[in-house]
C-alpha cells in the first residue's frame, strides 16, 4: 500500500478513536429488558461523526419507528451529535461502533461489551474487516478474527441473529487495485462465514451492501452521507423485519 494511503488511513483512525472515547466517569446502564435488543457493531460507519459524515443508525431507527416495532439499540458507547426527534421520539444513541477499530480490536473488546450491555437478540456487524483492509493487515487474520467474534456472540446468546455486511466500497478514486481486491475477497468470504457459522438456533445472515452503492452515497473517501446512510439502513430494515419479534 502506498505511503500516502497509509498516512491517510492513520489520520482517519486516530481521529475516529479520539472522537469515540467514552467518558471515564460514565456509569454502565442496566441491561435492557426490551424485546428486539439490537447491537450495532463495527467502526466509524456505525458511529458516524456529524456533521462530517453519517452512521446508518439514525436512519434505521427512523425506519423501525415507522414500522411501529418495539426495539432497543444497545451498546457501551453513545455519541454527542445532534439528532432531531422523530414522531415524538428521541433517538436511541446506544451502539458499539468505535471509529478506526480493526477486527482484532473488536475481538479484544466484544466479550467485555457483552458483559456490560447484556445479550443482544440481533447484531448488525458492519463492514467487518474494513479498517483491516485500509491498514493492509493480513487477510487470514481478519477472517479468523471475524469467526472468533461470531463465536463469542453465539456463546453469549445461542439464539442470537447476526447480520454481517458484505461491505460497501469506498470512493472510486480512493480504491486502489490492492484495496479493491481485498474488499471484494472479504465480500465473498462473508457468504462462507454466514453459511459456516449458522446453527440450528442462531442464524448468521449476509447482507449485500455493495450492489448499487456508488460514489454519490459517500461524504468522503469511505464514510456515508445522508443518502448513503439511508441506503444502508434500508438494506438492514428489509432483512430485519423477517426476524424481529412482534
Q: How confident is the prediction overall: mean pLDDT?
A: 91
| Class per helix and strand makeup | alpha/beta
Sequence stretches where pLDDT stays below 50 over 5 or more residues: 1-25
Distance between the termini: 48 Å
- Using only C-alpha atoms, the radius of gyration works out to 17 Å
CATH superfamily: SGNH hydrolase
Taken together, the total number of domains comes to: 1
**What is the strand tally?**
6
Describe this structure in words.
The relative contact order is 0.17. This protein has one domain (3-17, 37-240): Rossmann fold, CATH 3.40.50.1110. Residues 1-25 have low confidence and may be disordered. It starts with a helix and ends in a 6-residue tail after the last helix. The protein has helices spanning 3-19, 44-47, 57-66, 103-117, 130-135, 139-156, 177-197, 226-240, and strands at 37-42, 72-73, 96-97, 122-125, 161-166, 204-208. α7 links the parallel β5 and β6. The chain contains eight helices and six strands, in the order αβααββαβααβαβα. It has 246 residues and is of the alpha/beta class. Strands 1, 2, 3, 4, 5 and 6 form a six-stranded parallel sheet that branches. α3 crosses α8 (226-240) and α6 (139-156) runs parallel beside α7 (177-197). The protein is globular, with a radius of gyration of 17 Å.
Amino acid at each position: 500500500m502506498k505511503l500516502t494511503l497509509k498516512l491517510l488511513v492513520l489520520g482517519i483512525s486516530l481521529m475516529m478513536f479520539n472522537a469515540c472515547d467514552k467518558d471515564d466517569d460514565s456509569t454502565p446502564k442496566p441491561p435492557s429488558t426490551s424485546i428486539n435488543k439490537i447491537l450495532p457493531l463495527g467502526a466509524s460507519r456505525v458511529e458516524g461523526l456529524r456533521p462530517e459524515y453519517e452512521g446508518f443508525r439514525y436512519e434505521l431507527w427512523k425506519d423501525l419507528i415507522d414500522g411501529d416495532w418495539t426495539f432497543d439499540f444497545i451498546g457501551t458507547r453513545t455519541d454527542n451529535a445532534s439528532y432531531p426527534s422523530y414522531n415524538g421520539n428521541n433517538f436511541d444513541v446506544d451502539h458499539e461502533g468505535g471509529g478506526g477499530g480493526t477486527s482484532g480490536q473488536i475481538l479484544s473488546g466484544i466479550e467485555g461489551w457483552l458483559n456490560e450491555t447484556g445479550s443482544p437478540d440481533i447484531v448488525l456487524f458492519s463492514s467487518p474487516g474494513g479498517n483491516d483492509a485500509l491498514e493492509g493487515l493480513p487477510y487470514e487474520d481478519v477472517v479468523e478474527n471475524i469467526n472468533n467474534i461470531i463465536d463469542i456472540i453465539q456463546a453469549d446468546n445461542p439464539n442470537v441473529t447476526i447480520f454481517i455486511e458484505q461491505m460497501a466500497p469506498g470512493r472510486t478514486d480512493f480504491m486502489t487495485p490492492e484495496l479493491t481486491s481485498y474488499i471484494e475477497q472479504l465480500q465473498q468470504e462473508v457468504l462462507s462465514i454466514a453459511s459456516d457459522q449458522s446453527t440450528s438456533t442462531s442464524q448468521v445472515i449476509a447482507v449485500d451492501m455493495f450492489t448499487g452503492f456508488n460514489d454519490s452515497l459517500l461524504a468522503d473517501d469511505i464514510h456515508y452521507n445522508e443518502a448513503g446512510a439511508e441506503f444502508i439502513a434500508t438494506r438492514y430494515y428489509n432483512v430485519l423485519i423477517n426476524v424481529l419479534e412482534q
